[in-house]
Design brief:
19 strands, 16 helices, 480 residues, Rossmann fold, 2 domains, UDP-N-acetylmuramoyl-L-alanine:D-glutamate ligase, nine-stranded mixed β-sheet, alpha/beta
């Protein structure tokens, strides 16, 4: 069984093409008078680890101790990447060189969709002396880790010679080796424990067979045999995954259901990280693949490269990422604040949703850019409302609230009041439905003390869950 600390004892070495991901997000309302192109009004901008650095960030978010090795330029972008990694608890071992820039991918986003991406990178081969310096940094590190993960984006950090030296050294130490591949030269990955291509990368090397499972399987098994790969996991986008294990029958696994796909960038990094951590922790290959598939379903519902946490996988509802654990809620809220969002909080039992609830939620959403809803658990509702409540279980109530477009996140709490949740999230705005003075609202004094505000939304007369229940009971008696 997966627990919140299942991966905390694990140490990984990640080697590959490290990048800095930059984002500019906003709205498009007009066309430029200078050229027939959209004009983006930028609302927020942020940076995140990309490429092999995103793999490392995913492992760290799962609780693993991570060493990351790669090549950067002697520039501000490399320094920015190191700062991000240090903040995530990742130890970088970078070789810095004057003859190539740090790889940077900048994405322009409007209405939660990528409009364009532009890259800064070098296509020149990495000099032999740089490769040797990288190897000298790494060989000794392999003696203190539980696994090796190679993240190849074809930018030069992982040429054939270095790959084989790393794989051979890891296998001699009986360490599992996971490879997220790139390109047609799979000789460099010979002997790997598991390779995780996307379907396009798999077809390019093994030959296309998109609609024929028999040929698909035959090509996969031949590819494994050709390069001595023990396990092969092909990510297939909306069609899920195909897993070809060292032992046992091939499996074609459906993708998890998601409400909407926002961004697939970084999904392969997440799959590789979750798979590696799961296997290294002792989970079976079958269970590890299912967990990686679930993680992919979570990360594609988010905008930008964003690591999946252990809280995502153990708490809330993995098929509805709006519903999350406290741990994940704190991570998301922290990131939203860093990106310039105004976090709004409201709470309630929301048992039998009615127009009064909708009014409060919509008004709350207007007070900022991100609305977090605290939802009383079933036990909390029973203590507050009596043993015959709630009418709907907490999972159903959470799903209904999460389905509203104005809601960004739902967190279930077990206490009688949301005081602790409010103090943990530290929202800028606290919204409450009813007839209260701001200082009477639970958590209001804390929010005001932190420079925020409390907003009271008047209730709709005659609209309450209690009145609905009474009406239903009366109707039942009238029909009896």
């Amino acid at each position: 069984m997966l627990k919140s600390d299942s991966f905390n004892h694990l140490k990984f070495l990640v080697v590959g093409d490290v990048m800095l991901d930059r984002y500019l997000a906003g709205d498009v309302h007009r066309i430029s008078p200078e050229a027939p192109v959209p004009v983006l009004s930028v609302r927020k901008k942020w940076e995140a680890p990309g490429g092999a650095a995103n793999v490392a960030a995913n492992l760290a978010a799962l609780g693993c101790v991570v060493n990351l090795a790669g090549i950067t330029g002697v520039d501000g972008e490399g320094e920015a990447l190191e700062k991000l990694l240090s903040g995530a608890g990742i130890k970088p071992f970078f070789v810095k060189t004057d003859d190539r820039p740090t790889t940077v991918k900048t994405r322009i986003i409007g209405a939660n969709q990528q409009i364009v991406r532009f890259d800064i990178e070098s296509y020149e081969p990495v000099p032999a002396e740089v490769e040797e310096e990288l190897w000298q940094n790494l060989n000794s590190l392999l003696g203190s880790v539980n696994g090796l993960l190679l993240s190849d984006y074809g930018k030069g950090a992982l040429n054939g010679g270095l790959c084989q030296r790393l794989i051979s050294s890891a296998l001699e130490r009986k360490l599992p080796v996971f490879v997220d591949p790139k390109g047609l030269d799979w000789e460099r990955y010979r002997g790997a424990t598991c390779v995780t291509p996307n379907e396009g990368e798999f077809f390019a090397v093994a030959g296309e067979a998109p609609d024929d499972p028999q040929i698909y399987t035959q090509n996969a098994l031949e590819l494994k045999a050709c390069y001595g790969i023990k396990n092969l996991l092909v990510t297939r986008g909306a069609r899920g995954m195909a897993f070809f294990p060292e032992e046992g029958e091939p499996r074609f696994i459906a993708a998890p259901s998601v409400r909407e796909v926002y961004d697939v960038s970084g999904a392969g990094d997440t799959v590789a990280a979750v798979l590696a951590a799961s296997v290294a922790s002792g989970l079976s290959w079958g269970a590890a693949v299912i967990l990686a598939n679930r993680a992919a379903g979570i990360v594609i519902t988010r905008s930008g490269t964003s690591p999946v946490t252990i809280g995502d996988l153990t708490g809330g509802d993995a098929l509805d990422p709006k519903i999350c654990s406290l741990e994940e809620a704190l991570r998301r809220a922290g990131r939203w604040k860093e990106e310039g969002d105004t976090v709004v909080f409201t709470n309630g039992c929301f048992d039998l949703l009615h127009p009064g609830h909708i009014r409060v939620l919509r008004q709350a959403a207007r007070e900022g850019t991100r609305l977090v809803v605290g939802l009383n658990s079933d036990r909390s509702v029973r203590r507050l409302k009596g043993q015959d409540r709630p009418v709907l279980a907490q999972g159903d109530r959470a799903a209904i609230i999460a389905a509203l477009d104005c809601v960004d996140m739902v967190v279930i709490f077990d206490e009688d009041t949301p005081e602790n949740l409010i103090r943990a999230l530290a929202p800028s705005v606290l919204v409450k439905g009813g007839d209260y003075a701001p200082e009477e609202v639970v958590g209001g004094d804390f929010v005001i003390e932190k420079g925020g505000k409390v907003v009271i939304v008047p209730l709709l007369e005659g609209k309450s869950t209690t009145s609905i229940i009474q009406s239903l009971e009366k109707g039942g008696r009238d029909r009896a």
